[in-house]
Write a structure and sequence with these properties.
The chain folds into 2 domains: 81 residues, Methyltransferase, Methionine Synthase (B12-binding Domains), Chain A, domain 1; 119 residues, Rossmann fold, CATH 3.40.50. It is 57% helix and 10% strand. It has 9 helices and 5 strands; from the N terminus they run H-H-H-H-E-H-E-H-E-H-E-H-E-H. It is globular, with a radius of gyration of 17 Å. The model has no long low-confidence stretch (mean pLDDT 93).
């Protein structure tokens, strides 16, 4: 592995978002294959995820690694598109925190792990209205919608989004995953979601099952 790829990998493992961004840019300057850059980041975030599942790493580790990867990943993804290179994708995901809720940590972790797993992920942020999800699904051809809510007061927004998908004729086309501190498996079933898991690594397994991978 070249020095720049090794530094990119280490920046994720050491939760250094500034260094991850720096070496992502440097990899482009040095004309490193962007697919190899993405692979280096993927190995690092998966290593953190595996450590978390084994109890060897903790939630702050997962958050730090996700932040670092998500700082660097858009830079590498732009270069992949610029070169016209195809990164094998398991499916297209749109993710956001529902309207009224500004929490993003859980969503950030899920997005990072889904991206590392091979999904094309479009994180549209926090405090997202139902019509904004619809627009993002149409623009990106999404197959999975990830809805996050930390608060019990904002969790009902998930049901509104799903109802809006039905109204717009998109519900059969898009699988809906829900998660966050306010969400339970029972709530997910009651609102008609297709998948739920209380952990970010578990959400990746759910996403794979929803696309049959």
């Amino acid at each position: 592995m070249s020095e720049v790829l090794e530094e990119l990998r280490k920046s994720i493992l050491e939760y250094d978002a500034d260094r991850a961004e720096e070496y992502a840019l440097r990899s482009i300057e040095e004309k490193v294959d962007p697919l190899k850059s993405f692979e280096a980041m993927t190995k690092a975030i998966n290593e953190i995820g595996e450590g978390f599942k084994k109890g060897e790493r903790w939630l702050p580790d997962l958050v730090g690694g996700a932040d670092a990867m998500l700082r660097a990943a858009p830079i590498i993804e732009r270069e992949i598109k610029k070169r016209g290179v195809k990164r094998q994708s398991l499916g297209v995901v749109v993710a956001g925190t529902v309207f009224g809720d500004i929490h993003s940590i859980g969503k950030t972790m899920v997005c990072a792990l889904l991206s590392a797993e091979g999904f094309e992920v479009h994180d549209i942020g926090i405090n997202v209205r139902a019509d904004e999800y619809i627009r993002a699904i149409d623009e990106n051809g999404a197959e999975i919608l990830v809805l996050s809510a930390l608060m019990t007061t904002t969790a009902p927004e998930m049901h509104k989004v799903i109802a809006f998908l039905v109204e717009k004729g998109l519900r059969d086309r898009v699988k809906v995953m829900v998660g966050g501190g306010a969400i339970t498996e029972g709530f997910a079933k009651n609102i008609g979601a297709d998948g739920y898991d209380p952990t970010a690594p578990g959400a990746v397994k759910v996403a794979r099952s929803l696309v049959g991978r």
